[in-house]
Design a protein that fits this description.
Chain lengths: 317, 259
């Protein structure tokens, strides 16, 4: 199932009560509106899934009893994802400016950055941050080149390694998104800003980036959804229970109790809820940002499926 | 009477000397010299591809001249490598020249008022309130005070171009450069833009260099008309001379085509 469907589902409770300024949706007389038909399809799918779960004889009581323990991992998942997307946004902005720069250092560094972090597996990068970084810093420290404080800093917690790993990796992908967003603004706007006597920074801050962000928000939202689920990879970095995320908790508890499917379904449901809530806020943000671009208040229709198009729902194992 | 119809001691706002511009093998400007006095309106015309627009873009360094110098309000610059110092000089020169584009290039994420405020508030660091007050006045000048809070998408082409003129005026430039300001407009909207430009010339005595095919406007408002041909000024003179007695067959042919 795709991200689009999740959004459709979210749209359902809002029939006739769109965002402010939007005329309520009026179905043609005497017929079911498209939205209600879609709702029926969703209800049908859920009924089938319920049937499937019933046939599979899942241990609902166990799921209810252990829900709390697994859900506690939400904090690690959310903190990791939010911090990592913040880091990725900053890196992507500078990466994109570098890719568009005439300065050979900026261009070269950003080119290497996107090439390396898009060209190697995320899980490998996570291990590099978590295991190889302390190794390197430790050897330098033993050689007497570095103060001890720096070595301690390099011993990252799994969450810190996850934030850096995900942030750098997603930042590299998002560099391309930002670059396209900036290019989409068009050379005329640059000339208009230049003609007013703006500096490079004024032009970027006041003219180009505000327009580029509008283009960049939908694909960035998709990246964030993909990232929320990729936080599960942080489970592979061993650490104390405090650092266990949703997936790690589900997996560990599930295999201990011989209820792996039940545990994973709880985790999947939580991931799904998380991305659905985020999609809702994302669509509201897009409406806000479209001001000044559409003549009448209306919802932006175009949504780009991207790399994260498996997003919105983790597969029910 | 002197060429521009002004006394010879009137100060020169724009001085262009030996301007060349090459794009690879293509030589678009082949040695242009020009002086524009304060308050003068110069209309530049000629076939498309003759280098008129390139001339305007070289004057405020949107294009780097290959050779030659440009001087605006005493700031004298020539083309070449842009180091930090030169970039700053170019920026300073640009604040003295307001440019109006063929396709408006308003900032779509800002209202009309914000568009007009942007230059003074951001570049000159004029206090917000003062910039807003001045911008409202300018919007009044171009007859759009009631559209101050509209975004450009809700304005007609003519209205957009008038906001763009107000935006350029807000920087209080020494010279206004118009790059075919009416070419992208529907015929019925051209008049309102020309009327604003005319009032700039006659009421505000703004120094203007206008690239346009609007010969009616040129005849009525221009002090001097400059005919561009193959990257050079072929001939120039008062509108009367140019329109009635062009010296060169190229000028004659062009005028016959547009008049």
């Amino acid at each position: 199932m795709s991200a689009q469907q999740v959004e459709v589902q979210l749209g359902v409770p809002k029939v006739g009560a769109g965002p402010p300024g939007q005329p309520p949706f009026r179905p043609p007389e005497g017929r079911l509106s498209f939205r209600w038909k879609v709702t029926l399809v969703w209800v049908g799918i859920f009924a089938l899934m319920a049937l499937f779960f019933w046939i599979a004889k899942f241990d609902w009581a166990w799921m209810r009893d252990n829900f709390r323990f697994i859900a506690t991992g939400l904090w690690v998942t959310i903190v990791t994802a939010v911090a990592a997307i913040a880091l990725a946004l900053v890196l992507a902005l500078f990466g994109a400016l570098g890719r568009l720069s005439k300065n050979p250092v900026a261009y070269g560094v950003s080119g290497f950055y996107t090439s390396f972090f898009r060209g190697t597996p995320l899980i490998v990068q996570l291990f590099l941050w978590y295991l190889a970084l302390p190794e390197v810093v430790g050897n330098l420290y033993n050689g007497g080149h570095l103060p001890q404080a720096l070595y301690r800093v390099s011993l990252l917690s799994p969450v810190m390694a996850g934030i850096l790993g995900l942030g750098f990796n997603y930042g590299a992908y998002m560099t391309e998104i930002f670059r396209a967003g900036i290019l989409a603004v068009g050379p005329g706007q640059t000339e208009a800003a230049d003609a007013l006597g703006m500096t490079y920074r004024q032009r970027m801050r006041r003219v180009i980036l505000p327009q580029a962000f509008k283009v960049v928000i939908p694909p960035t939202g998709n990246e964030f959804i993909a990232m929320m689920k990729d936080t599960a990879l942080v489970s592979f970095l061993a650490g104390p229970v405090f650092y266990w995320d949703l997936f790690k908790r589900a997996q560990t508890l599930g295999s201990q109790a011989f209820k792996p499917l039940e545990a994973l379904i709880v985790a999947a449901g939580l991931y799904w809820a998380l991305t659905a809530i985020f999609s809702f806020f994302q669509s509201r943000l897009e409406v806000r940002l479209s001001r000044g671009y559409v003549r009448e208040a209306m919802r932006p229709v175009a949504r780009r499926p991207s790399r994260g198009s498996g997003a919105g729902m983790a597969p029910p194992v | 009477m002197t060429m521009a119809g002004l006394s010879p001691d009137a100060d020169v706002v724009v001085r262009i000397e030996g301007l060349h511009k090459r794009f690879g093998q293509l030589e678009v400007l082949r040695g242009v010299d020009m002086e524009v006095h304060r308050g003068a309106v110069v209309v530049v015309f000629g076939r498309s591809g003759s280098g008129k627009s390139t001339l305007l873009r070289c004057i405020n360094f949107l294009e780097d001249p290959t050779e030659g110098t440009v001087e605006i309000a005493g700031i004298r610059l020539s083309g070449g490598h842009r180091n930090r110092h030169r970039r700053e000089e170019i920026r300073r020169l640009r604040t003295h020249a307001g440019l109006v584009f063929q396709d408006f290039q308003l900032f779509p994420h800002m209202t009309a008022l914000q568009n007009v405020m942007e230059g003074p508030a951001t570049v000159k660091r004029v206090p917000k309130e003062q910039a807003r007050h001045q911008a409202m006045e300018l919007l009044g000048t171009v007859g759009l005070a009631d559209k101050a809070d509209e975004h450009p998408i809700r304005l007609s082409g003519g209205q957009k171009q008038r906001v763009a003129i107000a935006r350029a005026l807000a920087m209080e430039p020494d010279v206004m450069l118009f790059d075919e300001p009416t070419s992208a407009l529907d015929p019925e909207l051209i008049g309102e833009v020309l009327a604003v430009m005319k009032s700039l010339a006659t009421d505000l005595h703004m120094t203007m260099i206008v690239v346009t095919h609007e010969m009616g406007f040129a005849r009525e408002v221009a002090h001097r008309m400059v005919f561009f041909h193959e990257g050079m000024i072929l001939e120039q003179g008062s509108p009367g001379e140019m329109c009635e007695h062009p010296k060169f067959p190229e000028t004659r042919k062009f005028l016959e085509a547009v008049l």
